[in-house]
Amino acid sequence: MNFIKKIFKSSNVEFSGINNKENGFAIDGLSKAVIEALRDGIIVYDRDSKILVFNKAAEKIFNLNSEEIIGRSFSPNDIKESKLKILIQTLFPSLAPAIVKHSESNVYPQIVDISFEEPKIEIRVATNRIGDSKGGIFGFVKIINDRTRELNILKIKNEFISTAAHQLRTPLTAINWALESLVRESLTENQKPIVETGLQASSHLLKIVNDLLDVSKIEEGRYGYNFEKINLVDFIEGVIKKVEEIAVPAGIKIYLKKPAGAIETDIDVQKMEIALFNLLDNAIRYNVKNGEATVSIERLKDKPYVQISVKDTGIGIPKEDIKKIFTKFFRAENAVKTAANGSGLGLYMVKNIVKRHGGDIWIESEFNRGSIFYFTLPLDSKLIPAKEIADEEEA
Ligand code: ADP
Q1: pLDDT tens-digit profile of 273-332?
Q2: Which pairing describes strands 253-257 and 292-299: parallel, antiparallel, or unpaired?
Q3: In terms of CB atoms within 10 Å, which end of the chain has fewer, N or C?
Q4: Nearest CA-CA partner of 377 in 261, 227, 162
Q5: Looking at ligand 1, which atom is closest to the CA of residue 336?
Q6: 325 CA distance to ligand 1 centroid (A)?
Q7: Would you call 267 exposed, middle or buried from its count of C-beta atoms within 10 A (0-12, 13-18, 19+)?
Q8: 55 CB under 6 A from ligand 1?
Q9: What is the Cα gyration radius of the chain?
Q10: Is residue 392 part of a domain?
Q11: How far apart are alpha carbons 257 and 276 in whole angstroms?
């Protein structure tokens, strides 16, 4: 973004309408060639929405000729002209059918994803201001990244995973059921460990297949959320009660630090239970003998959010692995040694569930000492995103 800004500032030759000497804006031949060669669409317009730059990539994305666009001022009303519809919705995203904002209002660059149905186009638009020499605003630059092909490939990949996981699930469920029945039979000393090992392996496999199905739904944006207002404190107490069933046999004590009174939030109860269960399950599995896990709930003082943390006294996460921990299939070496079974998909799901609720998630951990997983949830339902979208990985 700054690069484009610099181009405008340092140039002095006319380029497609940018020759505003008053504001010190003009552009030289080299800068023009660079802008034309960019793979991203570039649109520059002044405060009156008069288009000054419309490069080749923009022509391709919007199926428009720069000659008919440059020099023209656009308003939301121009949406009526059918060939301009997508351009107008990009210039005025509030008119677009489906948008996902990646930046807060009034923070520049503004980043927004826009999806169009007919024709099917997926773009990411970064909008930045161009200042004038008097400290005011001369206009704006939009950098448009066409993600249609990329997202289509992702969709095909997800469909493949989802179909494969569906096909695997039916026979696996039958095998699991058969082994569960067998383990309850009177078996000989020799038979018992064999059947138990088989049951453990089939349960693990079934969990991976179910997680894969959930992940493919998340990535296609069809995990399906139903929000309802609940008392978060009661909800968390309920989940802890269920988790006790695995914590007690593992010898791990779970504590809850809760505020006085209720905390009302809008959540998808089923999905949030999956998230919290995953965090607590990890706090138990990656703990030490006779270890502890503590769940804390607190309202943040200066923000309309509640913060939940899950702290354990376990094996911790090696420093170099912390940033990879929310990526799909990642398992740290110390975790693999402690608990051989695991898919590495749990935290990816947890992160997506929290983000879909409008919250954030992060970790503090000390190797061999323990970890704290923090996440926030908004107290105001307006802060919940309007659309389901998979959180991209930052590996
Ligand atoms: P899984 O537990 O099936 O491996 P997750 O996605 O839940 O998958 O976790 C990914 C990895 O993050 C784990 O394999 C482990 O390396 C690390 N991890 C998660 N929770 C903890 C924890 N409480 N303590 C230490 N490491 C953890």
Answers
A1: 999 999 999 999 999 999 999 999 999 999 999 999 999 999 999 999 999 999 999 999
A2: parallel
A3: C
A4: 227
A5: 14
A6: 7
A7: buried
A8: no
A9: 27
A10: no
A11: 15
DSSP 3-state of 264: strand
Task: Report the nearest atom of ligand 1 relative to the CA of 344.
Answer: 8
The structure's pTM equals 0.77
Nearest CA to ligand 1 atom 25: 316
For residue range 252-272, what is the model confidence (pLDDT) as tens digits? 999 999 999 999 999 999 999
For 22, the token pair is: 């008053």
377 within a domain of the structure (yes/no): yes
> Pocket of ligand 1, candidates 276, 281, 347, 373: which has the most ligand atoms within 8 Å of its Cβ, to mutate?
347
Residues 164 and 240 in one domain: no
Report yes or no: 373 and 239 within 8 Å, Cβ to Cβ: no
pLDDT tens for each residue of 43-91: 999 999 999 999 999 999 999 999 999 999 999 999 999 999 999 999 9
Same domain for 157 and 212? yes
Residue whose CA lies nearest to ligand 1 atom number 20: 282
| Together in a domain, 208 and 136 | no
Question: Which atom of ligand 1 lies at the shortest distance from residue 211's CA?
Answer: 3
Task: Ligand 1, residue 315: give the atom nearest the CA.
Answer: 25
